[in-house]
Amino acid sequence: MRATPTKVSITCLALLGFLVVSLLLGLKLGTASIGPAQVWAWLTGGKLPYATEVILGDLRMPRLLLAALVGAGLSMSGAVFQGVLRNPLAEPFILGVSGGAAAGAVCALLLGWAGLLPLALMAFGGSLATISLVLAIARRRGRMETSTLILTGVMINAFFTAVIMFVISTTTDQKLHAILFWLYGDLSAARLQQVWLLLPVVLGGGVAAFFFGRHLNLLSAGGMAAATLGMAVERVKLILFLIVSLVVGITVSLSGIIGFVGLMVPHLVRMVLGHDHRLLLPASTLLGASFLVLADTVARTIISPTSLPVGVVTAALGAPFFVLLLAKRGSQWW
Predict the structure, then answer these.
(1) How far from chain centre, in Å, is Cα 127?
(2) Band of the pLDDT at 186, cuts 50, 70, 90?
(3) Would 52 disulfide with which of 48, 94, 174, 319, CB 3.0-4.6 Å?
(4) How far apart are CA 332 and CA 328, in angstroms?
(5) Which 8-state DSSP code applies to residue 107?
(6) Cα three-residue angle 121-125-129, rounded to 5 degrees
């Protein structure tokens, strides 16, 4: 499907409506029974019991909003990585950014720096150091080689995984539980401060990536073809890598590692709407937000009153999805 302003607008409005429905469903469902009338009364400023207002305003709404922003950021980043690297298995963590962010956050937890700002800064610093190292290694003779980029990211991720396992094996039981839940992608401690911190990052990164939609279309056709048409291929790649790495770094610092979102959602959108990134990027962003909201709702309710890390749910969905996709399509991806 070729993107036109009308198609982009209609698609985004439909997906925005789906996101609103997902958020309303998430507000209603949970350990405590809250009916649709109570949810509507709370949204319209009606009077409710104090306990109900606390559940909706302090617990469920911040968690749902954070899930929406995390899903949007990871899905948008996945679509960009797949387009730039022309690799169907590319996702936000392919360059080792998640490993660096996770290592920084785990070190912060180990040192007892569990506050929002120290945790975010340590994870963000780890992601920046990682992407700088990956890009420095992958650049040869002024060019970034895709194969070298991917392999470097995989190796650095493996190194940081070893660092994390070392920290886990030497930490106390009290800190171990917090570290493990964070690593599996836990949104149970979501607060509005995290939402306000992540909102401008995801919004700004999404808008910036959208303006490179035409460039991504050219890159998907191949670097030589893009260069022939006058595009500064290496500069565009570098800018896009920095945009999505910043988004992923801050996202991981607030949510932990949530896998498969950046893999599944762009593929689903591409299968339905085609390869035009001017439509693919906003559609993936909005669908990713809805997907993670619904996945987190499942994580909160499937074994109620106990809550699962949302990363467990996305992994349980993502692995079978790609097994089926590989069985059906083999190597014919693009």
Answers:
(1) 14
(2) confident
(3) 48
(4) 9
(5) H
(6) 175
Between helix 146-170 and helix 61-85 the angle, nearest 10°, is 140
pLDDT at 81: 87
DSSP 185: -
Q: How far apart are CA 244 and CA 155, in angstroms?
A: 20
Angle between helix axes 277-301 and 61-85 (nearest 10 degrees) is 140
Q: Which two tokens mark 21?
A: 């429905």
Three-state secondary structure readout of 11-71: HHHHHHHHHHHHHHHHHHCCCCCCCHHHHHHHHCCCCCCHHHHHHHHHHHHHHHHHHHHHH
> pLDDT at position 308, please?
85
At residue 177, what are phi and psi to the nearest 5 degrees?
-60, -45
Name the 3-class secondary structure at 86: coil
Chain centroid to Cα 187, Å, comes to 13
In the chain the domains, ranked by start, together with CATH numbers, are 5-329 (1.10.3470.10)
Tally of CB atoms within 10 A around 311: 25
For 149-167, the pLDDT digits (tens) are 778 888 888 888 888 888 8
Residue 334 confidence (pLDDT) above 70: no
Share of the chain above pLDDT 70, in %: 92
54: Cβ contacts below 8 Å, ≥ 6 apart: none
Q: Is the peptide bond before 62 cis (omega within 30 degrees of 0)?
A: no
